[in-house]
Amino acid sequence: MIPFSYIRAGSADEATAAGKEPATWFLAGGTNLIDLMKETVERPARLVDINQLPLDQIETLPGGGLRLGALARNADTAYHPTVEADYPLLASAILAGASPQLRNAATNGGNINQRTRCYYFYDVATPCNKREPGSGCGAINGVNRIHAILGASDQCIATHPSDMCIALAALDATVQVTGPAGQRSIPFADYHRLPGDNPSKDNTLQPGELVTAIDLPDGKFTKNYTYLKLRDRLSYAFALVSVAVAMKLEGGAISDLRVALGGVAHKPWRRPEAERQLLGRAPDDAAFSEFADALLDGAVGQGENDFKIPLARKAIQRALRQAAAGTPQSQVDKRIA
Amino acid sequence: MSTSTTASSIGQPLSRIDGPAKVTGRAKYAAEHAADGLAYGWVVSSAIAKGKVKAIHEEAARAVPGVIEILTHKNRPHVAWFDRSYRDQVAPPGEPFRALYDDEIKFSFQPLALVLAKTLEAARAAAALLRIDYIQEEPNTDFENSLEKAYVPPKKRSGIPAPASRGDAQKALDEAHLKVTADYASAAHHHNPMEMHATTVIYGSDGALTVYDKTQGSQNVKSYLVGVFGLANDKVTVRNPYVGGAFGSGLRPHYQVYLATMAALYLKRSARVTLTRQQMVSHVRRPETFQSMALGASEAGGLQSIINSAVTATSTFEDYQENVVNWGVGAYRCADAAADYKLVALDTPTPGDMRAPGAATGMTLFECAMDELSYAVGVDPLQLRLLNYAEVDPISGNPFTSKALREAYDIGAERFGWGKRPSEPRAMRDGNELTGWGMATGMWDATFQKTSARARISANGGLEVATAASDIGTGTYTIIAQVASETLGLPTANIDVKIGDSDLPASPIEGGSWMAASSSAAVQLACQSLGTRLFEAAQDLDGSPFKDIKFEAVSFNDGRIIAKDDPSRFLSITDIMKRADLPSLEVVETAGPGLSGMVSQVKKARATHSAIFAEVKVDDELGVVRVTRIVVAVAAGRILNPKTARSQIMGGVVMGMGMALHEESMMDTRFGRPMNHNFAEYHIPVNADIHGIDVIFVEEEDKEVSPLGVKGLGEIGIVGTAAAIASAVFHATGTRVRKFPITLDKLI
Q: Does residue A130 surpass a pLDDT of 80?
């Protein structure tokens, strides 16, 4: 760890003013940033501690929907009565990730900004375009069991590691940010980005911009939903493939569908056009199989992770069956429903 | 002399006597000892696996406030010339690694510099600023693609038996009714104990060193330091009173103790070096293992031929060897067997012993082949083992001192409900999940090592027992107290157990499952001898009630010596000490092989056995495996403490689950670097992976294996566990996975 200066922001304005300076990072729960600093992956000159800012509320929005404060802890969010009652998909996804200790410390804003778990990103002895632009990608032709099958580039095949974000993508959340140029709202689909030729950038935040909240729209998916996570051990491992499904059924047909994949791309992976194709269809195996193909269209393996393509295909279909049956995956019972 | 049973007697489930110190933080580990003026060391590791250090740019690092010195191969102090000075009790043949010796790089993560500073933070910050230029050469760390380069190690490692062949296995195989051939592979594993390797060297005012090291053998480290740094024997003491797990990673002295000692001698001040979790891949691992097996059997399933060949990885500078192949050729009755063992040298650190070295892989993979044979024959896997049960050691032809494996099979099968097992795979379905049952045999040596112990009783009746043993979380403190308590009839509250100090009476390294048998024998002998001395002192007293009776006619109970046939005749130990005017009474005894009825290894085979039964549930579509039930029946002689013994077996079983399903060092062969060097990505089982583990100790009286009939338990829990799980996965799914770990991609 390299020495750094540390300031505590008294207000959001103070935070964003400080945050636009070079090599400056906001510090919230610190569950990812501090690890990265210990490994000298991140070498901030300055940390702006935002934990004092009044951003830890979870409150109903006037026009319907729920606002999750950026500093509300993951655990407090997952166990919040309104989240449990109206957004069980989000609660389930949060509880599928990390450990109780980490969820107690990690914040919602921090969760959506967590960085990839690519082995090469974490190891400064190896090349990584995300960590050190222009140094190359160690994972291509390397150890890439956990890497992307969709939306990767020849610069980077890293995946986004969050579980929470997969549910937020499926729920069409909106990220509220404030920054030197004022406040703006970013649709969740536009928040994270694909690596392209600039993999060092995970998201579309501008310098100094601070996430203040994540808004969930009113549309509730409380019956036909699931978060199915497949991983290399039954808890405390990042997803090889995860699937968030939010579905509505009317008269035996699918009337609304959102499906997001985790563990397969640099951002939560959705294809709204494929979702629309299923509207009006009966929730049967034929429809689910077609949908899985459409969602995975263009998937490419990197060698060690080739298995993710058939695994994702099966996982999508199983998750859709779970959602349609109203039998969401338990995050406690590790038997897959 | 005799004693009565109390809560602390041998065989009672006494809680760890060191437990309160550990859970309250009073127990200090190697990196927790304070010293004035301590220099904190941070190791800078090589980014490349092979080549040379071209230049080290130190300016920026030296400019960090608080930096005291940066040691590299260029400025290090003198160390010994000859390889023999670096050898330790368990070193394999070859040239032991010397950190900072020259500019040559032999493996990734090799220590290239030690930054020393007044604070840990300054050392770490400076280390991050140290820039090293390399001359790179292409490393070879590709085990799988190097098998054709395997060689027979020219020099054998001491203590590792040569591959044992008998008869004409090839001919017998050719003539066998049934043949099964199977190639299996197991990944390299990292030990990853909770406590990282660390050393604090306290530099005394007289220049003497007190070295707190994370090691399984304080005396092994001491003799290493004496050899490497040319120290006088009385100028260095190595201590390891508490060890936060080790699994074999602490058997050899590692570079952290070398570097910390070098720093202390160079700076003439106390120094500490602590490895990071990432650096825990930099010194030792269970080697990658490839095992090729051919089994020939009669129509009924009688083994007619065993051919068992294995290749394991080693480094380019030492030939690390373990007994991989003799488990397979020695487990069952079979007239013709051939074994063959080779090494592949890679540009990696030298592998080392990890829990049940050789057997965890060799016996487990062999048991996988036995499972395959059971299907080929069409006989129940347990029945196949019973058909081929070895009444005598198939390798030596000698009888066993004891072998209650048949009882272990029976009791384990009964408890598991094995009799209800359908013979065909994929026969048990519950919704999306397929259920499978598998079993395996486990085996490990029951060895004994010469050990000394001291027993000292003071005037107030307090007993101190001391030996240079280590407790790596296994329960050594506790069983020593129990043996002493039973022998001298004193409560454990009055007993102070001193271990983990090179100045104490000689003890072997803690490893190989010999510690319980060896240390208990030495402690019992010392306490018996002390009892004799106390009795003699009591007899000499004026008006002694024991004037006319012999030692055999008294017992030790409740702090007293009592005449067996007349309990009114007694003397308390404190009375004896006071009236004889003895401030203390002390004896040192050495227990060696052959003591009190122990039979020589040449005459009888000595082994621990187990029968493991596993139930798995596998999602048929998604390949997710859950190990829902394990029953393990262990025949390990006398159990000194069923509580700590059970913990040992459970820990071994959990490690076996990790071997079966999770553990794998992921090597980038282009860079020669293991990439999953942290606990997030190097997977070991977590609570969610572990369900019921039913541990049964089978009664096994054995007066010949060791003085107390103890066989040892540290290793046996892991041996065979992964085979039972793999067999259960096959029984569930019909898919035979021959490469461990069995991850879900291999089942979809």
A: yes
User: Please, what is the Cα angle at A20 between A14 and A26, to 5 degrees?
Assistant: 70
> Is there a common fold for B19-26+449-592 and B146-189+285-447+602-746?
yes
Of the candidates A119, A125, A146, which has its C-beta nearest B47's C-beta?
A125
Give the model confidence (pLDDT) of A285-329 as tens digits: 999 999 999 999 999 999 999 999 999 999 999 999 999 999 999
Q: What is the pLDDT of residues A49-62, one digit of tens each?
A: 999 999 999 999 99
Q: Which residues pair with B55 in a beta bridge?
A: B133
Q: Where are the domains of chain B?
A: 19-26+449-592, 33-138+193-276, 146-189+285-447+602-746
Tell me the C-alpha distance between A257 and B660, whole Å. 39
Q: In CATH, what class is B146-189+285-447+602-746? A: alpha beta
B715: annotated active-site residue? yes
Task: Give which of B681, B686, B687, B743 to mutate to test A binding, by max A Cβ within 10 Å.
Answer: B681
Output the pLDDT for position A337. Answer: 95
With an 8 Å Cβ cutoff, are B673 and A335 in contact?
Answer: no
User: Is B103 in a helix, a strand, or coil?
Assistant: coil
Find, among B614, B721, B689, the residue nearest to B365 by Cα.
B721
Helices and strands (H and E) in chain A: how many: 13, 11
Do the chains contact at A230 and B129, CB–CB below 8 Å? no
Q: What is the mean pLDDT of chain A?
A: 97
- For A209-251, what is each residue's pLDDT tens digit? 999 999 999 988 999 999 999 999 999 999 999 999 999 999 9
Tokens of A264: 């397969």
CATH number for the domain formed by residue range(s) B33-138+193-276:
3.90.1170.50
Per-residue pLDDT at B3: 53
Contacts with A101 from chain B: Cβ below 8 Å: none
Strands (E) in B359-445, as ranges, are 428-430, 433-445
Q: Provide the 10 A C-beta neighbour count for residue A153.
A: 17
CB contact under 8 A, B681 and A146: yes
Which CATH number applies to B19-26+449-592? 3.30.365.10
Sheet of B463-466, strand order: B495-498, B463-466, B451-458, B584-591
Is B688 within 8 Å of A334 when comparing Cβ atoms? yes
**CA distance, residue A183 to nearest chain B CA (Å):** 36
Residues of B in contact with A126 (CB under 8 A): 47, 668, 671, 673, 675
Q: Chain A residues with CB inside 8 Å of B115's CB?
A: none
Structural contact between residues B250 and B195, judged by C-beta atoms closer than 8 angstroms: no
The answer to whether B683 contacts A237, with C-beta atoms less than 8 Å apart, is yes
A316 close to B (CB below 8 A):
no
Q: Which pLDDT belongs to residue B108?
A: 98
Q: What is the spatial order of strands in the sheet that A46-49 belongs to?
A: A5-8, A46-49, A24-27
Contacts of B725 in chain A (CB under 8 A): none
What is residue B5's predicted lDDT score, i.e. its pLDDT? 60
| CB-based contact A233 B662, cutoff 8 Å | yes
- The two beta strands, B336-346 and B303-315, are parallel
pLDDT at residue A47, as a whole number: 98
CA–CA separation, B699 and B87 (whole Å) = 41
Active-site position among B58, B433, B615, B715: B715
Cβ-defined contact of B668 to A237 (cutoff 8 Å): no
pLDDT of residue B697: 98
- Domains located in chain A, CATH noted: 5-49 (3.30.43.10), 224-325 (3.30.390.50)
What's the pLDDT at B594?
85
Judging contacts by C-beta atoms under 8 Å, the chain B residues touching residue A335 are 433, 617, 626
Residues of chain B with pLDDT under 50: none
Our CA angle for B565, B571, B572, nearest 5°, is 125
